[in-house]
Amino acid sequence: MINRDLEEVYKMHSKIIHKTPVAAAVSMALLLASQGTAQAYDSPLHVFSIDDVMGGFDGSTFGTGGATQDTAIICGVAGSTEPCPADNQPFVDKSGVMLYPVDSEFGYYIVDFVGAQGKARDGDYLEGFVGNIVENGVQTGIQISNAATDTYKVKPPLGTWCQGLGGTSVKCETEHYTVLEHVLSCHEIIPYFFADPETGIQDILSTPDGSLSFDCANAPLDDNTLILVGGTPTTRLTNATPCDAINDPEGCQMFPNDKTDMRNNIALGSDYSVQLKDDGKPLYGWGGLHKRPNDIRMYAKLALPPEWKEPDANFTVTKAELVVNHWITNNPNDQLRPEDLENEAATGRKPSYRIEGDPGSSTEVWKTTIPCYEGDGDLIDTEEGANDPTFIGVGTVLKNTPFALDPAATPGDLPEDDPYAFSSDLTGGFSNAFYTTINRDPFEWSYDADPDPLVQDFVGSPVPDGTLGELVSGPRWRLKANKFGQDLPGLEIPLEECSPPPFQSDNIKYVVGTPVTTIINLLDWDEEANGPSPLATSKGWVDVTNNNFVTVAGVDPDSGIPFTTNGLPMTDDFDLAVYVKGDRKSTAVYNAKLVIEFEDEGPVPPTDFDLAVSDLDVPERVLLNQIADVGVEVTNNGPAAASGTVTLRGISNRGYTVSFFASFDDLDAGATFPYTWSWTAPDGKPSTITWTATVTSDGDIDPSNDTATGSTKVRRN
């Protein structure tokens, strides 16, 4: 019988995440397979200090805890090998802590209209200041003050900030096209405000007497963004998959651009520009300025259960929370990176809504249930219509699936044509309101308090509280800050939710400099998009080779400790990076600990097994853009039960790629399990898809039967 906690978890994941019957069966199988004796573990408390301060991408720290020690990272302090420059001396901040200058690689040299170059260890000690906090003779944490954020000018719309007279600036960047469009135009690809959300007819704006009018249908953005090569526009950006190498993956057009190169790897149109993140998300910008902060980065190693480090140990982690005590910061991008993971599935509390239409279909529509303001001042009204009718009306649309764009479509280059569906809002049909309503809190644990699957009534808590309903998400993996961040970057979070901005000082929920405890859920993960979380089992914590979301850049020759491309050491204990990116106003980080529960492996079962791909079921022929099922059957030839992952990858002769995967646990000897996925054939030109199905598992004794191949011809009607 499934225990209550696991049953609740299963309900949580199956409520609105519209799973196929196979996926639901796999989820249940995973839960059933995880039964055992639960064990609880609290790590020793790690107190942050200047010893944790990192110097660069080699995993170095000022103290001995990193991949290597570098006593020149901080100057002027006891233990340092370097005096401070005459024009950059230690100082005492307002809280009475002596702060010492830092020299690191975590910043940029900037040149107006050209770009930014990553810093080297140059001995200028201009990246910020740190100092130990000592209370009653006991060292209790670290005080941090960043260097001022560097800025450089670019020709609009290549920038991500808009600069005004007097040195003021506002964020002009988003990952969501609908947010960009709402700022720059009254035209709406995903209709909800200016356009009719049911018909999509664009609004005609006019003065009260009708003497002036404007048809928003005439205001689409210029979506013909051309890739810059050496500063010269070339071909249109049609593929948002970032390159790992030239034409790898096949068909890619640009490398990721960390706002550093203004002459290459950026696509420019007359209204906006597009850069790509390394995770494939686009960054739409329309400003004339870039900001490059100088990070202060810290590394902490927290001890894990010793039994996790035994050979072949693989415990199922059922609860994992990271508890951090710190001051509320002034920057919502101050990161917590456990095992060097960045996780956008941890969202905190999002806006509540009700679902209309058929959930999971092309008719699904989400509408607001709570009156609120957007960050740009638009009012989202109540269902009763009690507010001023000149604001947004009743049931504001947050998700309008009937107007979602096809990611495989090839739009034209005329102004009235749709843009390429690079961003998740366009493919999912999310409106600007979904991202900018302030009915949210990124730093709360989010629960659904309404058992009705068509009503998502989200309530929040600063700490885990299962009495509030079904868990939806933990907070963002950030130090708690005073601002929303993301598409509301400069707006402070109000104490009175949904009160009209701007907010008075007595209406600020998180006051900068106030001591606070942040608890994040380390098991938050988007399994549908990314597959199983590396932190779901003990192997992903203790063995970097079981974490497919980080790249090992090197190994320190003396300590033998590997480090990632971000410079984080990766040991067999819990490795945590803390990035502080705020301004010169100092903040404090005190300590951190882990709270973990995991399932005992119990008696060791037989280990020999042979997994085989026993069937690959793909259509022989399909039409362009036709929806079809593709499936794989895995058989366990025994003798032991087996766990593994099956992947199905299709590659066309025109560069199109598609991948599916599923994981299974404790598949009995002689048992067969089918996996079926819904696939939409590519649009455009006819092609041939070559399919390869592969089952992988540690311990498979016969790899010769682990793959199967097939092909599908994609034809015109």
What does this structure look like?
- The strands form 15 sheets. Strands 1, 2, 5, 6, 9, 10, 24, 37 and 41 form a 9-stranded antiparallel beta sheet that branches. This protein has a 6-stranded antiparallel beta sheet with strand order 14-21-20-19-17-18, covered by helices on one side. A 5-stranded mixed beta sheet has the order 43-49-48-45-46.
- The protein is mainly β.
- The two termini are 51 Å apart.
- α1 runs antiparallel to α2.
- The N terminus is likely disordered.
- It is 7% helix and 34% strand.
- The protein contains 7 helices and 49 strands.
- Among the domains are: 35 residues; 107 residues, no CATH class; 111 residues, Immunoglobulin-like, CATH 2.60.40.10.
- A hairpin with an 8-residue loop joins β26 and β27.
- The longest helix is centred in the N-terminal third of the chain and has 13 residues.
Characteristics:
Immunoglobulin-like, 717 residues, nine-stranded antiparallel sheet, mainly beta, 7 helices, disordered N terminus, six-stranded antiparallel sheet
Distance between the termini: 51 Å
Major pleated sheet? 9 strands, antiparallel
| CATH homologous group name of the domain at 605-715 | Immunoglobulins
Based on the coordinates given, report the CATH architecture of the domain at 605-715.
Sandwich
Helix count, per DSSP? 7
Average per-residue pLDDT, rounded, comes to 89
DSSP summary, beta strand count: 49
The value of Rg in angstroms is 27 Å
Report the uncertain regions: 1-36, 385-391
Helicity, as a percent range: under 10%
Shape: globular
What name is given to the CATH topology of the domain at 605-715?
Immunoglobulin-like
